[in-house]
Amino acid sequence: MLRLSLLLLCVIVFTSCQKKNTSGEMRSPGEIAFKANCQTCHILPKATMKIDAEWPYFVGRYGEKAKLSEEKKADIIAYLTSHN
Fold first, then answer.
1. Cβ 68 vs Cβ 21: under 8 Å
2. Which of 30, 6, 9 is nearest to 78 (CA)?
3. pTM of the model
4. Tens digits of residue pLDDT in 31-54
5. What is the reported pLDDT for 22?
6. For residue 13, what are the contacts with CB-CB under 8 A and spacing of at least 6?
7. Whole-number Cα distances in Å, 9 to 16, 19, 69, 83
8. What are the residue boundaries of the structural domains of the chain, listed by start?
9. How far apart are CA 68 and CA 62, in angstroms?
10. In whole angstroms, how large is the CA radius of gyration of the chain?
């Protein structure tokens, strides 16, 4: 009974800590990578803070520091430019 209670408590805590996507849309790989990797060092910038041509430079620069793969960097750039 105690194990079941602890398991239930863990499930409740885990699910309450997750952000829910209330729009019903699937998140793109770029959005997932952007939110998972970029906010570990700073507040997430808005996609409109740069023009499309600037994002590859910034994502490349900071992506290298974060040791992101070329695929993840490309996904993030695609996400930012599609929301700009």
1. no
2. 30
3. 0.69
4. 999 999 999 899 999 999 999 999
5. 54
6. none
7. 11, 18, 36, 38
8. 27-84
9. 9
10. 17
Three-state secondary structure string covering the chain: CHHHHHHHHHHHHHHHHCCCCCCCCCCCHHHHHHHHHHHHCCCCCCHHHCCCCCHHHHHHHHHHHCCCCHHHHHHHHHHHHHCC
The C-alpha atoms of residue 31 and residue 25 are separated, in whole angstroms, by 12
Give residue 13's Cα distance to chain centre: 21
Taking the C-alpha atoms of residue 27 and residue 34, their distance in angstroms, rounded to an integer, is 11
Asked if 33 contacts 76 with a C-beta cutoff of 8 angstroms, the reply is yes
